[in-house]
Amino acid sequence: MIYNSPRGTSDYYGEDIKYIDFIIDTARNLFKIYNYLEIITPHFEHTEVFSRGIGENSDIVQKEMFTFSDKKGRSLTLRPEGTASVVRAVVERKLYVENLPLKLFYIGNMFRYERPQKGRMREFKQIGIEAIGCDNPAIDAEAIWLLNSLFKNLGFKNLVLYINSIGCSECRKDYIRLLEEFLKPYSKELCPGCVNRIGKNTLRVFDCKVETCRNILSGAPKISNYLCEKCSSHLKDVFDILNILDIQYVHNENLVRGFDYYTRTIFEIVSEDIDSAQNALGGGGRYDNLIEEFGGPKLSSTGFAIGLERTMLLMQDLSIKPVVIKDNMPSVYLINMSADFNGYLFGILKFLRQNKIICDSNFNIKNVGKEIKWAKSAGYSHIIIIGEDEVKNNTVTIKDLFNFSQSQLSWLNEKSRLINLLK
Ligand code: AMP
């Protein structure tokens, strides 16, 4: 019997791990530079954390959550996104008493019951940040700057940043009423999905990909014309700082996002190199009411999340290579000719590993020629062959696989030379 992985999940190994490590390392390094600290939250929460946080009428809560009852009948849900969990943790542990804004980042698996396709999975990884307790537009601009830098550092070129404001709870309310009035006469022409959204999750009609809906929406009132004074000057300030930072962006007046908690600035980063619905690599925005709704104080916040798999797939499609540490560091493959020499082999392995040199050996002893070929293809920079002569004479012969030079040293008296030869 051979089992398959569940639909919408994947196994990662080989080349994929190089990409995953590279993306995570690049993000971690950058987050440190921007003064963000890591937070780790559980993979599941009480269901209300998401149904209240993301919104009862959102697509995620309506259709995409992995919800189950535990043995005591409590409803739990595998997290579909990171923000609601982080906010729950911040409120529960009163992390907001620290110097604000509290800048946090997370890396972890998310779960959504979606129809799987390339770049859309049921289990996927997100890397995200949250800046909690700051209503200054500067923090929105800094988050967008960080998102943009992350993709630049990963090697992406043709990126577009879409930015919009969906107003505060006050001005948005008025705008949504207006939008609903505009849409009502079209209820026969709009797709059933959009008709269903009206009155529940009206703004999401802008996400619809159906041609007729898009044509109708091109004539819809734009939220930017209905923002209150405070919201529109907040957005202008975000743009001003991005201009100072020389960051290119597009004010996309049709941009909306799938969660109810967003207020004011929302943004998305998209790759122009790919023409697909899955070209959004990451996005986020401001959420000014969520912490209060979760029982905390009124703390304005902003954040974003990127999809790791989608980023990796796009890097692979665009032939953007990860910079792998092993490729730049010395690494030694020890080829042992016989199990009789294990004592000698382990002495050298131990010494190399204590000196933080990447090394391994052929524990299944095979033909030397094949082992050398394999070591080269696996990217090792050096090999050491352990045969009868080496053991008898207490020597180590090390070959450089790139320039084919070879050095021999005495294992008893010249150990440290081995490290020097590798550095
Ligand atoms: P969201 O949390 O929906 O704003 O998504 C943020 C990012 O997470 C997206 O831009 C994608 O890169 C990624 N993402 C969201 N949903 C999925 C999914 N089902 N499979 C893979 N990546 C996803």
What compounds are bound to the protein? adenosine monophosphate
Helix count from the secondary structure assignment: 16
Question: Biggest sheet, in brief?
Answer: 8 strands, mixed
Percent of residues in helices: 25-40%
Low-confidence stretches: none
Estimate the global geometry from the Cα principal axes.
Answer: elongated
Backbone CA Rg: 27 Å
Ends distance: 49 Å
Which architecture name of the largest domain does CATH use? Answer: 2-Layer Sandwich
Main structural class: alpha+beta
As a percent range, the share of strand residues is: 15-25%
Q: How many strands?
A: 16
List keywords for this structure.
423 residues; alpha+beta; BirA Bifunctional Protein, domain 2; Rossmann fold; 2 domains; eight-stranded mixed sheet; five-stranded mixed sheet; binds adenosine monophosphate
Describe the structure.
- The structure is a single chain.
- The chain has 423 residues and is α+β, with helices and mostly antiparallel strands.
- It folds into 2 domains: 15-168 and 228-317, Bira Bifunctional Protein, Domain 2 (BirA Bifunctional Protein, domain 2); 331-422, Anticodon-binding domain (Rossmann fold), CATH 3.40.50.800.
- The chain contains 16 helices and 16 strands.
- The protein has an 8-stranded mixed β-sheet. A 5-stranded mixed β-sheet has the order 13-12-14-15-16, with helices on both faces. A 3-stranded antiparallel β-sheet has the order 2-4-3, covered by helices on one side.
- Strand 12, helix 13 and strand 13 (358-361) form a beta-alpha-beta unit.
- Helix 5 packs across helix 9 (229-244).
- The radius of gyration is 27 Å and the shape is elongated.
- The chain starts with 14 loop residues before the first helix and ends with a helix.
- The site of adenosine monophosphate (AMP) has 18 residues, from strand 6, strand 10, strand 11 and helix 11.
